[in-house]
Structures are given as C-alpha cells and as structure tokens.
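Lab notebook page, bench 4
Experiment: in silico fold of construct C2
Operator: M.H.
Input chain length: 275 residues
Purpose: comparison with the prior construct
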Amino acid sequence: MCQSTHSSQLFPHGELEQVFPNIWFVQGGWDMPVPLKPRISRSMVIIRHSQDSITLVNSMRLNDEGLKQLEALGRVENVIRLASMHGADDNFYRERYGAKVYALKGTQYTRGLTVDIENTKSYLQPDFWFDEKTRLPIPEAKVWVMRSPKLKEACLLLPQHNGILLSGDMLHNTPRPNSFTNITAKLFMRLFGLARSYNIGVGWWHMTKPSGDELRQLLTLPFEHVLPIHGEPVIGNAKNKYRKAIERFASRSDAKQWHSNTDSNTGHPEREMRG
C-alpha cells in the first residue's frame, strides 16, 4: 500500500521491463507516511493497445529518462487506479499528457493511510468511476472487484497468455527487499516477516479486513500470471504459487469473524465478471 496525497513526488525507480508483448513493468520506491519513513517498493504496469495508445495501471511517476522511454512506446491516454490506497501520481499523467483517469467506484483519493472514507474528502476526482460493468479502454480486459474490505479493491484480468492478473494491494510478491527500499523498510520486512514471495498484502489485510470467502474467490479467476502493485512480476503458475497464502489468510479472516453477520454474497464464486 502507498499513501495517497494531492501532490506527486518523484521517487527512484528502475527500467521499463517488457514482460509480455505490449506490456511493460517498472518497479520503484515510495515513502510510507509513518514514523521513520520506511521506503517500500511499488510497481506500475504499462499496456500498449489500440494503435499505440498507452494505458498505465497503478501509476507511478517516472523521471525524465523514464518519461522519454514511455513516450517512445506510444501515446499516454489512460490511467487506471485499482487500489484505494494508491493514486498519488494519477493527476501527474492527466496534467502532462491529458490522460483520462479511471478509478474504482466507491473509493476516494485520500491523504495518508485511512479506511475512514466516509469522513474524508477526496482530493481528486477521476474522469470516470468504473466497476465490473464499465467498458475500459483496454480491449478484452475484465474487472473483478473485492467489495468486502473496508476499502474496495479491483483486479484487472487480461485474457492473453492464459490470463494475466493485475492486482492492487491484495497480492504482493516481495521475496526480498529490493534496491528501492531503505534500511528502515528492510528492518520492518525482516521483523514482521514481510519478505515473502507470493503473499497477501499483510498490512492491507489488517487494515481493511476482507472476508475469507472473497479472498478464496481469487482462486476462481482465470489467470496464469500476476503483475502486483508491490514486488516482482510472477510469470507462470501464479495461481498455484499464491494458493497457500490465499487459503491461509482466508482462514484467518474466518477466524476473526469480521463478516460473520454480513451478506455472504460478497464472496460468491459465481459473481459475474465483465469487461
């Protein structure tokens, strides 16, 4: 997870890495808004489609050289925000390129890390609010929404290569601290067991309290690969690699009884997914 703020700040990041035809992945850093400012990793996905149109998913501001590389790929026309606790750089791309911003319906752009969106004013209005019924600018992309957490999250599913899942804070893949994390973050990752491959976002899980049923529904989605918002891409056999962590945290959610008195349909595996 990252702090959402009204201003865009440039942080160190790596090169644009092509992971599939017309899909690139870039990793960088972000200072969490807590004491000692641990700098954690975060990632952005770049998708080229429809006559060199570019859509950014989970946006991250790039430096001048990175922007030149981005512009060489095509025209930056859209930004899609999947996670409630991200989006600080969305407006940067709207102001620089005139990109249209898509944000998940029922979320807000808030400062700091908070789940109290009812009493918090949104600092940014997107061009479009989306849900499962929205036709996004990426051809054949489908949206799946996790509604049980205190902050809604979305996943984007692309059909190519037996299914590519782009996730928000719910799925991480951080087997080790990378070069964009600072010493404080490295200590936190070791102390709290956060340096793990194929994991649920532990801080997100504690803060937002998703239902066990809805976590398990991730395993019904058609994907073979995961491009997470935190950590490294997972290329091949991703569903099986995440299965143990999903089932473990789903069982913990059940034990917490966070949703014992709510409508179980929030996690129904037959819920329709549309593009």
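Observations: The CA atoms of residues 265 and 271 lie 8 Å apart. Residues 2-6, 263-270 have pLDDT under 50 and may be disordered.
Next step: discuss at group meeting.
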